[in-house]
Amino acid sequence: MGKVEERQSRILEILSVSGKSEVTELAGLCGVSLVTVRKDLTELETRGLLRREQGYAILNEENDMRRRLAANHSTKVRLAREAASLIEDGDTVMIESGSCCILLADEISRTKRNVTIVTNSVFMADYIGRASNIHLVLLGGDYQPDSQAVVGPITRLGAQSFHVKRFFAGTDGYHPQIGFTGDNHLRVETLRNLAQNAEEVVILTESCKFTRQGVVPEFSLDEVQYLITDSGLPEGIEKELAGYGIHVTKV
After folding, report:
1. N or C terminus: fewer CB in 10 A for the chain?
2. Which residue range or ranges hold the HTH deoR-type domain (predicted)?
3. CB-CB neighbours of 180 under 10 Å
């Protein structure tokens, strides 16, 4: 990650804690001039990750998908870049609607050519849909406003028109006996339906998700081929996952 990206991730992480910060304060915390931090804020605002009002930078509302992108931004970007290394120019992949997955799609749009992305994320279509070097297929279905994604039987039927090598998904939690878990049964059902049309399932998630348990079983450990996470993954869990043949990458 370059200096500019590191600094912009630092700005987002500061705002993730405070919600709002003066531009002069951000410049001091980042050790740069006002001119430099204003350039960073302009770029971040253009990407929809924050807004600016009268000398302040303000993070988006709690239920805004862009705020989820801003949380732990530097970690999520590293996960996205590692996941993108599994994708070649010309590939067709399925990517779901979680924040790490949105950043993966953004990374693909910046670094790959002629990749087709099949997704249930309406937010993703808006976020990267204007990129000229990718082809994005947005599945239909019942719209969930909080995640800005579609779910349900229409989504399942649309996904059946494709067969891809890899499906990239996030997760809400983990249970050693159950595997990966989710919080919303409709989202989990949709992820499982999408995975049926892929040869391999790749989970992108922060290691903190391994400290909590979702209420709905998402994927058992023998249904997942890759896990991409950060260095906070406990060694015991890593060995457990490896025992099921899951290729674990920590970044």
Report:
1. N
2. 4-59
3. 27
CATH of domain 70-250: 3.40.50.1360
State pTM to two decimals.
Answer: 0.84
What's the pLDDT tens digit per position in 143-159?
999 889 999 999 999 99
Which of 178, 182, 158 is CA-nearest to residue 223?
178
Q: Domain 3-61 falls in which CATH fold?
A: Arc Repressor Mutant, subunit A (1.10.10)
Dist. CA 127–CA 123, nearest whole Å: 6
CA angle 64, 193, 244 (to 5 degrees): 100
Q: In the structure encoding, which two tokens stand for residue 48, read together?
A: 């929809």
What are the tens digits of pLDDT across the range 45-93? 887 788 888 888 988 776 677 778 877 888 999 999 999 999 999 999 9
Is it true that 3-61 and 70-250 share their CATH fold? no
Q: Provide the H-helix boundaries in the chain.
A: 3-18, 23-30, 34-46, 65-70, 73-84, 99-111, 122-128, 153-159, 185-195, 235-243
Q: Return left, alpha or beta for 179; rule: phi > 0 is left, psi -120 to 50 is alpha, else beta.
A: left
Cβ(202)–Cβ(166) below 8 Å: yes
Taking the domains of the chain in order of start, what are their residue ranges? Answer: 3-61, 70-250
